[in-house]
Amino acid sequence: MKSFSTDIKDLSTGHLLILLEGELVIMCEGENRARSVGDLELIKENQFECKQVSESHKVLMIQANSDALYIEEADELSLALIYEDFFLQQKSQSYLEKSAQYILERLTLSSDQTQSSLSIIEQITQYIQNNLDDKLSIEVICEEFELNKTKLIKLFKDNDLGSVMTYVKSLRFQKAKSLLENSEQSISLIAASCGFVDCASFSHFFKKHADKSPSQIRKERDWLM
Fold first, then answer.
1. Separation CA 170–CA 72 (nearest Å)
2. Is the same domain home to 20 and 105?
3. Can you give the residue range of the structural domain that contains 129?
4. What is the tens place of the pLDDT at every residue in 22-34?
5. What integer is the mean pLDDT of 167-196?
6. Quick one: 67 and 158 in the same domain?
7. Do residues 137 and 52 share a domain?
8. Spatial contact of 133 and 169, defined as CB atoms under 8 Å apart
9. Share of the chain above pLDDT 70, in %
10. Domain tally, the chain
11. Is 33 left (phi over 0), alpha (psi -120 to 50) or beta?
12. Are residues 118 and 105 part of one domain?
């Protein structure tokens, strides 16, 4: 079996899929999982189905240990560098093998390492990054980490991260801007992946932070291309 592949037809049990472009729906373990740029999916079930949602996609699939635990955001590795390694430049097979191995090592965490190597603020910020599509609030974060509000607010202040919700909004804006500029996802899908209930609230939020609407950003990108 190949240690890595960029052809979605090669996807099989034990592969860690990193989506670099487009949208997919993975159907396994009795549920449909929509996946967009930057998402990971570890295929553990023998029976699964993959459906392409967008007109085109690019994926990297690495043979992995199905018992391992993985960080949920591939952005940690810089998707641009992964894309460049496997799609933009001619590289030797040996180089690509080592690159795939490095990516897997960076993404793999043991259960012990997850708890011991990450400080509480690192765990919280990672949790926020991994759940930007969900309803995040101070109350939700406090409940997740069994903290009181005062402790959570102090943690962010002591680590120069500003207020909790300003930090959340900043990450949502960065993710939205990146997707608008670098993906072909629809504005409505980007809005949902960044935690907004509809396009109107997303557009209002984005225009407040960028002085431009999401559609203006997309039009400017298309014009430059």
1. 19
2. yes
3. 114-165
4. 888 888 767 788 8
5. 90
6. no
7. no
8. no
9. 89
10. 3
11. beta
12. no
Q: Which two tokens stand for residue 184?
A: 């072909």
Q: Residue 191 is part of a domain; what is its CATH number?
A: 1.10.10.60
- Single out the residue of 216, 206, 213 nearest to residue 173, CA to CA: 206
Could you list the beta-strand ranges (E) of the chain: 4-5, 15-21, 24-28, 31-35, 40-42, 48-52, 58-63, 69-70, 108-109
Whether 176 has a pLDDT exceeding 80, the answer reads yes
Q: Answer whether residue 138 shows pLDDT above 90.
A: yes
Beta strands, E only, 167-219? none
φ, ψ (nearest 5 deg) of residue 166 = -65, -40
92 with 19, same domain: the answer is yes
Q: What is the value of pTM for the model shown? A: 0.50
**Close Cβ partners of 25 (under 8 Å, ≥ 6 residues apart):** 32, 33, 34, 35, 50, 51, 53
pLDDT at 112 exceeding the cut of 50 = no
SS3 217: helix
